[in-house]
Amino acid sequence: MSIRFSGTLKRSAGVASAIAKQTRLLNLKPVKNIVVKFDPFNKNVKETREFLFSLTGSKVLTTNISCKIKTNILCDRSQPSITFTLSNNEVIVFKSANLTNLELLQLYNKHITPLASTEEPETIVPQTKSEKKARKKR
Amino acid sequence: MSLADLCEKPIEVQPRNEDVENPYERILAREVLNWFNHSRLVAFFHSNPISAEDRFRTNIMLKKQNMYLKQYGKKVMRMALEDTKYEPVLTLFVSRNFMVFSPELQVGKLLKLNRRIPQLILMAAIVDDRFMSVNELVKYSNMPDLKTAQAGLVAVLNAAAVQLTQNLTHHQQTLLGHLQKHIELQQKMSNEEEA
């Protein structure tokens, strides 16, 4: 006679933990070059600056040491944007005027982070003692 | 609260109590305003994550150039700069910021430092009470100093008169030149004869 359960079992832990989760998932491996453009006097720049802050954390940077992050400060009150140049020479542009930090991170993790996992990981098979001996004999 | 009240009345959200004033914040605000009033150059940087070691190194680099690196929160800045002439600066104070104060004016060195420290990104600066963006700072650093500019102006003003005298005395000057060369040649020949 009771109605079927509807609703959530777990409660959301807030925006900060959502941002932390997305930041943990960030992987810069597929990206060759990042250019963040913003005008500091534009009103819509807060989230872009926060996103830039998330992108340049030490743990995120270690996922790809060869990725270059450049920031262009504009002086013409134009809208902020973030341009990712991938290692396969594709260019992805995020126009971040009306996006929040969390949305930017989610978009990145939706479109660019999956490209990192398609690269096959190098499997190092450890050599056994007999194999090493055989090698030495040669 | 009766059951009827609990069911029908919406829960009133208690507003955050920000009325409690912190005297340390007021001291910091006074310090910030003091820095603003006594420095010719105030630079505003956006800060990416920077380790304490890198921050220490940056501090040393700047102190050698007589520049001082400071970081204050939004609340303290608002307390310090509201209702003063520095109010437009508050629009920059979104996300993390650093400030560099200097009693001397060295815009070229500031731009070089901006390139050397990757975690700090220069956004704007106050130069001698003038709020400038990055483009304007670059233009300012490329301009010659006042004396050179004044010398240039004097040269331009005298240009017409100088041109006139040159045109008038052109033939006499060439004659003078030829005569001097002739004298030199003759002296050379006489020296060779003696030797």
TrEMBL record, chain B:
Transmembrane segments: none annotated. InterPro entries: Ribosomal_uL10-like_sf, Ribosomal_uL10_bac_type. It comes from the Eukaryota. Belongs to the universal ribosomal protein uL10 family. This is Large ribosomal subunit protein uL10m. It comes from Cryptotermes secundus.
